[in-house]
Automatic annotation (TrEMBL), chains A, B:
Protein keywords: DNA-binding
Domain HTH tetR-type: 4-64
Domain of life: Bacteria
SUPFAM superfamilies: Homeodomain-like
InterPro entries named among the record's database cross-references: Homeodomain-like_sf, HTH-type_TetR-like_transc_reg, HTH_TetR, MftR_C
Protein name in UniProt: HTH tetR-type domain-containing protein
Molecular function GO terms recorded: DNA-binding transcription factor activity; transcription cis-regulatory region binding
Pfam families with a match to the protein in the record: TetR_C_14, TetR_N
DNA sequence: TAAAATACGGTACGCAGTACCGCTCGTGAG
DNA sequence: CTCACGAGCGGTACTGCGTACCGTATTTTA
């Protein structure tokens, strides 16, 4: 007859009632009553009705912030890709709880919006990190940081949702693959000190119209040249 | 002594009070009183306190949906880039109102979250459009659609926020440039029927490590080859 | 053992949003 | 002219979230 801590009992009661009646049909009084506690106690453990569903978003965000702060990766994008994996692992760690939450956010617009707002905070964190890391205050670099952050988050969400829907058996491998895709979108400028990073000649044939390729090539070449001083022929 | 319509008076009163006391310090009773109307009338014109700030997000979303539905562009990404420009133009059209809203969303977390949720709806619309357009149900294509939609939205937001902050004098030109950046990230597969789209040989020199380039090149070549049957050497 | 910290319950309040009812103008049909 | 009807507005009352404050019991620490 041991008593689980109040916080746990409240969460259990809440999810049970959400499953039975739905989120909006459940009041906080209902939850407290089912948990055998007072209404005041609920708010002592959770700031709002929504927070019982997203209990540790703040904590996770801080975790990611620390991870980035102490990160020592070769490029900003790799550091962010690495950090975002922590988020995925956190969800996977929650297991069934994450799936129940997904079921709720799929049905209740208010919860979906809340989830989206949380994700946006990660994206903002990433964007600021990348921008700081690049140290380049130009408008072009700023846009690039924005695109990078958005892509990483989108890739993560894509894999996460697949896993939440039960469409993925190995989400960690998938997120690695997805991050490779993102890294491929944003080729890293070469570090000049790196040995073996000399001039390289690449030739390939393609059926694509040259115009379709040009912007990508120009971008690659420009960024390589900016760092190493090679000439574009 | 002409009387503006109630809806307008309510909006004016609301923004005036938000400026004076802040959003959270203003109650709906305050707004109705200042407008010389009853509280009931407020809710007859606006579903919530937030909606007086975002009055026509739904309408704009439908506008974009229609635009996409009747779009006849060469690629999905171009169609979406075109549609997203409508959003930017809408904001620019609002002029000072958009800037006042931005000032509010910058300060009030609840409003920022709401704004983000609205943006996410555009992104979802774009993602679905792109996925449908590609018609390719593979996981890779799905991720690609996700990345495209996220990038277009991120680029738009970037330009929009610059304009809202008064950092941009020609946002339309900027969004066009930003969209070119996004298009460059996702090279379009060549249409085989297009004349002049034969085999092209490209050679260039770069200071980058070949490994850094390889994923990008592979992606370009694969997609070109898939369509036109050229061989990669 | 006294005091202080911790955890819980209860009451009361402010405000958002909903439901419902009643009033007053038009405006057009008979 | 009058009656009916619909549109726009106001008022009252209610539910429910979230906050503030106070009182009480149990445990911990000095």
């Amino acid at each position: 007859m041991s008593k689980p801590p109040a916080r746990t009992r409240l969460a259990d009661a809440a999810f049970a009632l959400f499953d039975e009646r739905g989120y909006e049909q459940t009041t906080i009084d209902d939850i407290a009553e089912r948990a055998g506690l007072g209404r005041t106690t609920f708010f002592r453990h959770y700031r709002s009705k929504e927070e019982v569903i997203f209990p540790d978003h703040d904590r996770l965000l801080e975790l990611i912030r620390d991870r980035l702060a102490t990160s020592s990766h070769s490029t900003a994008l790799v550091a962010v890709s690495d950090a975002v994996r922590l988020v995925l692992l956190h969800y996977i760690d929650e297991g069934d709880l994450a799936r129940r939450r997904y079921a709720l956010t799929s049905k209740v617009a208010a919860l979906r919006d809340r989830e989206i707002a949380s994700v946006a905070r990660y994206q903002r964190l990433f964007r600021e990190f990348i921008a700081d890391w690049m140290g380049d205050p130009t408008e072009s670099a700023s846009l690039r940081a924005e695109l990078m952050a958005a892509s990483v988050v989108a890739a993560h969400n894509h894999v996460l949702r697949r896993w939440l829907r039960g469409e993925s058996t190995d989400p960690v491998a998938e997120v690695d693959e997805a991050m490779r895709e993102v890294l491929a979108l944003f080729p890293a400028p070469a570090s000049p000190s790196e040995p073996g990073a000399g001039t390289t000649i690449v030739a390939f044939r393609t059926g694509q119209n040259i115009d379709a390729l040009l912007p990508s090539l120009r971008r690659l070449v420009e960024e390589g040249a900016k760092q190493s001083g090679t000439r574009v022929t």
